[in-house]
Amino acid sequence: MLPKSRLYLLISLLPVYISLAVYFNLIALPPSADNTLSSLLKFAKSSTSSLRSLTRQASSTSSSTSVLTMGAKQIVPRPSQERGHADHDWLKTFHTFSFASYQDNKHNQFGPLRVINEDRVAPSTGFGTHSHREFEIFSYVVAGQLEHKDSMGNTEILKRGDLQLTSAGTGISHSEKAHGSKQVHFLQIWSLPSVSRLTPKYFTRHFTDAEKRDTWARIVAPVDAEGVLKDEREGKGPAPVQSALTLYATLLSDGKSLKQTIKGSKGYIHVVQTSGYNTKPATGAGIKVVGAPGVEVELKEGDGAYLHFENGGGELSVENIGDKTAEVLLFDLE
């Protein structure tokens, strides 16, 4: 069958064909048919106008459908108080995914993302020397100072705005402790590498609050992504990760909103618990995450959400709906 648009076109042009045939004497009409011919021409003009209107409507409908399917098709909240939680006195920690004594088959990993631990370590304490392999491990420092030492000879004091990434590869040992007289609050994030048995490497990057204020700062990106300095221990731009993962961070002011295109089929968003340790339902800064019309969720500090996209990604909107700055991490995942 012909598409409706083509069928309308053929019908609307029929009177024109008849008029042309009469003009060139290919067919004859009785004198009384002058009024009929005039009516046919008016009908042709009216039909063509209607066809243009129908075409515009079809185009509008197609465009609207495109917008609806471009964003996240599903946003699944991960409430703060439902995360794994442990209080060891020296360490107060939340686990987004199964970790240590917290095990939940519904929250083992998401794409290459395997661990998001929000840790608070008391002064003069921390994680003693221990080993890792076949993980990409990065630390995002929120407050305080974190002392890092490893078997590759790296010793460093990390502060707010610093991001440290260790590509564990075939194996490393390291320790992480609170430096100075204050508690250190940081997020420890692990991802699975795309290639196994890599040579271990260490990277640090620094991003000021100004660089993250009301914009998405790309702080981690795949080693082969544009603008990534994959062989520099320190440098500008995102830290190079051996995973199909891009991490953005923002300090979103109250009343402000941001959009971000997600290229992967999955994403994860997390609101950092900056206003204080809280094991109860989330409070503090609040954001609204919109994936598409009717697909949205509101989150507060400590809350997160799984993002599912159709057709290999789409646009996401994040709006600060509270009265405090929201520190937000956004993962783009394959």
From TrEMBL:
InterPro entries: Pirin, Pirin_N_dom, RmlC-like_jellyroll, RmlC_Cupin_sf. The chain crosses the membrane at residues 7-29. Residues 81-190 form the Pirin N-terminal domain. Signal peptide: none annotated. The keyword Transmembrane applies. Keywords: Membrane, Transmembrane, Transmembrane helix. The keyword Transmembrane helix applies. Gene3D superfamilies: Jelly Rolls (2.60.120.10). Pfam families: Pirin (PF02678). Belongs to the pirin family. This is RmlC-like cupin. It comes from Favolaschia claudopus.
